[in-house]
Specification:
Helices cover 42% and strands 18% of the residues. The chain has twelve helices and eleven strands. Helix 1 (7-15) packs across helix 12 (291-303), helix 2 packs across helix 12 and helix 4 (78-90) packs parallel to helix 5.
């Protein structure tokens, strides 16, 4: 498989495959319906909308969308709709779970339910974002994978190992045979006073010894040397990842989220994002996300479905 280098190529890569089934929890959501309709038109997914049938059909009429494009499972109560949607994924009747009008806290509780949820024992719930950035494309001609911008506030070393493995798996699903992973910190120098640097150094050594399989891992790396060959040359840094990272693993949610929002609002990045670490991808979009971003996030969820 040739590497997928743009989000448009991500859509195209799915068109030659059987469409995945996406169950939307509380599917009576205008934004989700519009994104789902676009995904159906693109031929990348089929949808089971679990929600208030009357509201779904009314919204479809408002947007001139044929409600027959979807399978509608009538359940007016948001919480019950969420449980039914999740259970469709657990039972294998759907491949991907997607948040509709259900609140984020209820959606996350569905995923994390110890008896019926989607998080395997010993796994970690994390978030992967794929950025299609004009300047990064000009420099490298590829996508950039970023974690974790949304879920884990302050990961310890054990959690960072799991985040890194999840990010590696996501990048490899895009046809990147051996993704270059930068473990970020404020500096390339290891300092016992900065836990981000010591964690990064341990992860880099684990990568050297094959404990983070399928990737080239280095750290600590500052953001500039992770993505800019020029910055590496100026600083005299020799690194197998420096200047060419495919994946950025941030030390905490503040740094990751600030980067994510800067990339989208200031640098014109297009994006896709989903929750991973689960038995099936769980699409979690923001109300502020564009319809295009929601479509790409659906496509990302479909790409990450385990064969």
């Amino acid at each position: 498989m040739e590497p997928i280098r743009t989000l448009d190529q991500l859509l195209e890569s799915l068109k030659g495959e059987p469409p995945r089934k996406v169950a939307i929890a509380a599917g009576h959501d205008p934004h989700s319906i519009q994104a789902a309709a676009q995904a159906v038109r693109e031929g990348i997914a089929r949808f089971l909308l679990v929600g208030d049938r009357q509201r779904i059909e009314s919204l479809c009429a408002d947007f001139a969308i044929a409600h027959e494009s979807f399978t509608i499972l009538d359940e007016p109560d948001d919480s019950k709709a969420g449980m039914r949607a999740r259970d469709l994924v657990v039972s294998g009747q759907a491949d991907v779970l997607m948040k509709g009008l259900i609140s984020t806290d209820k959606y996350m509780r569905l995923i994390l339910d110890k008896e019926k949820g989607l998080l395997p024992k010993g796994s970690v719930l994390t978030h992967i974002t794929v950025l299609d950035m004009p300047e990064f494309q000009r420099m490298h001609g590829k996508l950039l994978f970023v974690s974790d911008v949304a879920i884990i506030p302050a990961p310890d070393l054990s959690t960072k190992i799991k985040i890194t493995n999840c990010a590696i798996a996501a990048a490899r699903s895009f046809g990147i045979d051996k993704p270059r992973v930068a473990i970020l910190a404020a500096t390339e120098k290891v300092s016992e006073r900065m836990s981000a640097t010591t964690d990064a150094a341990i992860l880099a050594k684990m990568g050297d010894r094959g404990q983070l399989a399928g990737a080239v891992v280095d750290g600590p790396l500052a953001l500039d040397v992770a993505i800019s060959p020029e910055a590496c040359a100026i600083k005299g840094l020799v690194s197998p990842v420096g200047g060419a990272a495919d994946v950025l693993v941030f030390p905490n949610i503040e740094a990751a989220n600030a980067f994510y929002k800067s990339a989208t609002y200031l640098a014109g990045a297009r994006l896709a994002g989903t929750v991973i670490g689960t038995t099936s991808p769980c699409v979690l979009t923001s109300r502020a996300d564009s319809e295009e971003s929601k479509l790409y996030s659906i496509a990302l969820g479909c790409r990450l479905v385990k064969a």
